[in-house]
């Protein structure tokens, strides 16, 4: 059974107030107030002097017992939101492998599910390791990016992109954080993402809660559980109001199930959100041994994914 052997993250200490960031991108004062008061954003972590490879390496080096795990790593996977994450000829994943002494591993990227590629990578590498049948072998999944184009720094009415990163070691026989269920759906009529006709974009926002609620129920059902069995939801950090609509579709009163502690100060860190939230929830005691919990992600395009695990 696929399991998460270790999870670590890196969030730059330097941050920019959301007001200043959005004003720089041409947002009106009214729209800025909506992002602050209703969507829940306050600031986002940015480190202009660091490269994407710097951020990914920092996430890996934050992992406890890294030296013990290192000889067991067979795959290194960067779960990307954007098909291109650095200007040519830079290759961040190859640089990461070089700096970490992992040149002998098989390294590749996944981008097909955009911000949901992190959960996809957990599922894919778990299947690969199971097929290899090499006892103790691990895959290192990396998530998080630096938006090096302005068009990728803000998704209007959805999220403001921060620069947090995460590193996840995936195994097949770990004693905790076992994957119990996974579901993903792609609704191709929204393939244009944020760069689509206004009427299609409006339809996406209208139908979004139902699509996410459906995939959550599918993941929970595939684990043989019900929503009452879920202790906490570790979400992707987007528009707080959209989450209230999703919970209503799931028949859940209030937002106590959601872990939103990082939304205001981290923003939406591409595919790294759920794993950053995992670290914080575990450190704060919100996630306890034996808890069944849910990770969610939605990628532009539009892919909706949910994964159920047992801590």
Describe this entry's structure for a reader.
Keywords: Acyltransferase, Transferase. GO terms for molecular function: acyltransferase activity. Pfam families: ACP_syn_III_C (PF08541). This is 3-oxoacyl-[acyl-carrier-protein] synthase-3. With 311 residues, the chain is of the alpha/beta class. The chain has 2 domains: 169 residues, Thiolase/Chalcone synthase (Peroxisomal Thiolase, Chain A, domain 1, 3-Layer(aba) Sandwich); 133 residues, 3-Layer(aba) Sandwich (Peroxisomal Thiolase, Chain A, domain 1), CATH 3.40.47. The chain contains 10 helices and 13 strands. Strands 1-9-6-4-5 form a 5-stranded mixed beta sheet, with helices on both faces. It has a 4-stranded mixed beta sheet with strand order 10-13-12-11, with helices on both faces. A two-stranded antiparallel sheet has the order 2-3. α1 packs antiparallel against α2, α3 crosses α5 and α7 packs across α8. The radius of gyration is 18 Å and the shape is globular. The chain starts with a strand and ends with a strand.
List keywords for this structure.
Peroxisomal Thiolase, Chain A, domain 1, 311 residues, acyltransferase, Thiolase-like, 34% helix, 5-stranded mixed β-sheet, ACP_syn_III_C, 3-oxoacyl-[acyl-carrier-protein] synthase-3
Brief characterization of the structure:
This protein has 311 residues and is an alpha/beta fold. It has 10 helices and 13 strands. The protein has 2 domains: 169 residues, Thiolase/Chalcone synthase (Peroxisomal Thiolase, Chain A, domain 1, 3-Layer(aba) Sandwich), CATH 3.40.47; 133 residues, Peroxisomal Thiolase, Chain A, domain 1 (3-Layer(aba) Sandwich).
């Amino acid at each position: 059974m696929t399991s998460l052997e270790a999870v670590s993250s890196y969030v730059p200490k330097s941050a920019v107030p959301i007001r200043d960031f959005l004003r720089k991108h041409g947002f009106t004062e009214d729209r800025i107030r909506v992002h602050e008061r209703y969507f829940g954003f306050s600031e986002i972590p940015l480190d202009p002097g660091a490269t994407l490879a710097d951020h990914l390496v920092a996430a890996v080096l934050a992992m406890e017992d890294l030296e013990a795990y290192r000889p067991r790593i067979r795959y290194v996977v960067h779960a990307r939101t954007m098909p291109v994450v650095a200007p040519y000829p830079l290759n961040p994943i190859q640089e990461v492998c070089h700096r970490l002494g992992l040149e002998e591993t098989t390294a590749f990227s996944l981008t097909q599910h955009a911000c949901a590629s992190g959960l996809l990578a957990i599922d894919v590498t778990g299947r690969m390791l199971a097929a290899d049948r090499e006892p103790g072998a691990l895959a290192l999944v990396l998530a998080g990016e630096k938006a090096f184009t302005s068009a990728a720094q803000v998704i209007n009415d959805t999220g403001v992109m921060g620069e947090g990163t995460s590193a996840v070691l995936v195994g097949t026989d770990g004693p905790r954080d076992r994957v119990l269920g996974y579901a993903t759906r792609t609704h191709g009529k929204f393939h244009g993402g944020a760069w689509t006709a206004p009427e299609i974009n409006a339809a996406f926002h209208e139908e979004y809660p139902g699509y996410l609620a459906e995939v959550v129920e599918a993941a929970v059902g595939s684990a043989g559980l019900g929503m009452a069995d879920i202790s906490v939801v570790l979400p992707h950090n987007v528009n707080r109001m959209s989450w209230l609509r999703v919970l209503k579709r799931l028949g859940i009163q209030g937002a106590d199930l959601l872990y939103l502690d990082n939304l205001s100060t981290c923003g939406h860190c591409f595919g790294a959100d759920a794993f950053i939230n995992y670290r914080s929830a575990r450190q704060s005691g919100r996630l306890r041994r034996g808890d069944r919990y849910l990770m969610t992600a939605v990628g532009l395009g539009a892919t909706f994914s949910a994964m159920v695990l047992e801590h």
